[in-house]
Every structure is written in C-alpha cells, then in structure tokens.
Amino acid sequence: MIPEQHVTRYRASDGQKQWDTIIPAGPWLRTDFRSGPGGGYAAATPCTDGTLVYCVFGSSVIAALDFDGKIVWRKEIVPYTFDVTVGSSPVLYQQTVILLCAMARAQDSRVVAFDKTSGQVKWEQKLESTAFGHSTPVIIDVLGRPQLLVLASGMKVSPNALQALDPADGHRLWWCRGAGDASSPAFGDGIVYFDSGRGSMGVAVDPTGSGDVSNMKIRWTIGQVPEGIGSPIVVGKYVYRLHAPEILRCWEAQTGKLVYAKRLEGIGSTWASPIADREGRLFFATAGKSYVIQSGPEFRVLAVNDLGDANHPSPAIGGGRMFLEGKQNLWCVATAHP
Asked: What is the reported pTM?
C-alpha cells in the first residue's frame, strides 16, 4: 500500500502548523529503497509562484495547491519507469511548471511543461537517448536568451549528458558530453560546470554554442570528482564543489586550476546544496553541523554551527530567514526575531 503523501504549511514567524493536505497518491508503489533517507516518496522539493504551490511525489504524481491548502489540479506521471525514486524537483518558467522525467528505461525519458494554472501539458520534449537522473533542471540567461539545463546520463559518460532546451517550447539548443545523475549544473562567469554527483568527471562548458558542443565549447575538465549528491555553485570567478569525504574544492572558473581543497570537518551532509548571499558568503547548511565560507581565492571559515539534528535536505530561504529540515524538527534561523 502506498503511504499517505502530505503537503503542510507552517507560519514562518513561529512554526505553527496552519494546514495539512493529503495529496492522493499516484500509481507507483515503490519497493526499492536502496537510495536511503534521501530517496523516499517526498524527495522532490516544492516550488511556488506566490499564488500556487507545486509539488511532486515519488508515487509519480504532480499537484498544485493554493495557499489555503486546496488542491487546484493533480496529474499522474505516466509512464513512470524512474530509477529507484523521483528526485527531480519542479521548476517554474513563465506560465509553466517544468519537470524532468529521466527514466531507467531511456525511451520513456522526457521533459514535460505543465500549464501552471490548469495542469494541462503545454509541451513535451522526448529524450529517448537519455538515461536516468535525479537532478533538478536549472534556468539560466545566456546573452539575453533563456536556457533550461537538463542533466542526466545514468551516471555513465554519455555524448549528451548535459542538454540545453528552450524553456518556451522544449526544443534542444545544444548538448555536451559528460555524466549526470543526482546534482544540478551550476552557471557563472561565462561557464556551466557539471558532474554526476555520484563520482564522475567534472566538465566546464561555454553555453553559447549550438548542437553538439563537446569538441568546441568544453573549457576544461576534471578527471574524477568524488561523490557529492549536493550541487556545485559558481560565485564570482570560482567554482565550489563539496564532496565526500567532507572536502570542499575551489577551482578557477575560467581555467579549472585548483585554488584549494579543504576539509569541512564533521559537516552534517554532503547531500545538501549550498547557497550564496550578496556578500559572497557560502552557506553549506543543514540542521546538523554547518559551515559559512567566504568566497574568494582564500579559504576563510566565517562560522560553524551545529543544531544537532543532521539530515540531508538543502536549506530554503525567504523573508530574511533560513529554514532547515532535520530528522526531528523543522528549524528557522534568522539574524533577529521579527
């Protein structure tokens, strides 16, 4: 029997629960939980446009709720030959909510854009040569033109692991050789950096090309990047990558030259993705042991904190607050009580 799947709302100021809505389960009864605590039915992260909340569950269902907790629309994702779980989160673009469905059966792989108010399919791009992946697509702006970056290859090196689509209609703009699975690509300083997150080569590519850019637009590569389920990040002129065992690497974005590799001793998880603020501070934050690092060519630890409730989810930010999901509690961190 598929377990109940809930979306809950908490008041940001004091954590009081305001509503709890059950989303009717989709068709996929999962039997393989080898992916551990990060691969349950609620692995995907919801998103919102300020009017509706969009959520995806591992039973292969996507739904939209209003801010009162009422289900506005619900769609089952069929076929559902996902590998182990649904790990990709929905992303918003204009009037659509977009979901990567990279499947263990490659002929089922596709990207689907749903109308965000009705749930009707606006466009679908089949990716029949794309193996499974759990990363979340990233929308970037390249020379004034939006690109939807999709990363999946079943962990193996493939000729089109990273693909750039037009988010308006899904047609392919360019693609690049590499590997993809758990981690999303990162964009900054004129390059896109990506690796699989499961232990693979790392690639930095210029996103201004078209078609197969593997021979002309790859700027640099790293032979092997150890497993780090969280995503990389580019801040200023540097690429930052946290991976096992508790190692933070920093490379020059333009050259791939290693700037430093330092251990973040006892960090709560290498699965959570980092965030950066306007001052260039990097937050490697969970409800366990967290680090704040100053970006730049020198390794500078600004703060270390530990809430003692280690878990894998990435932090969420809003209204000057950071929200962290532990195994026991939901936490809110802010500079001062509002």
From this structure: 0.96
* DSSP state, residue 279: T
Residue 269's nearest CA partner among 253, 248, 285 is 285
pLDDT for 36: 62
- The DSSP element (H or E) to which 128 belongs, if any, is none
Task: Show the tokens assigned to 208.
Answer: 């201004």
Q: Classify the C-alpha dihedral 250-152-138-231 as positive or negative.
A: negative
CA 234/CA 294 separation, integer angstroms: 13
Question: Tokens 């989303």 sit at which residue?
Answer: 23
Task: Tell which phi-psi region holds residue 280, choosing left (phi > 0), alpha (psi between -120 and 50) or beta.
Answer: left
Q: What single-letter DSSP state applies at residue 92?
A: E
State pLDDT tens for residues 83-119.
988 999 999 999 999 999 999 999 999 999 999 999 9
Structural domains in the chain plus CATH codes: 235-338 (2.40.128.630)
Give the torsion through C-alpha atoms of 86, 88, 90, 94, to 10 deg. -140
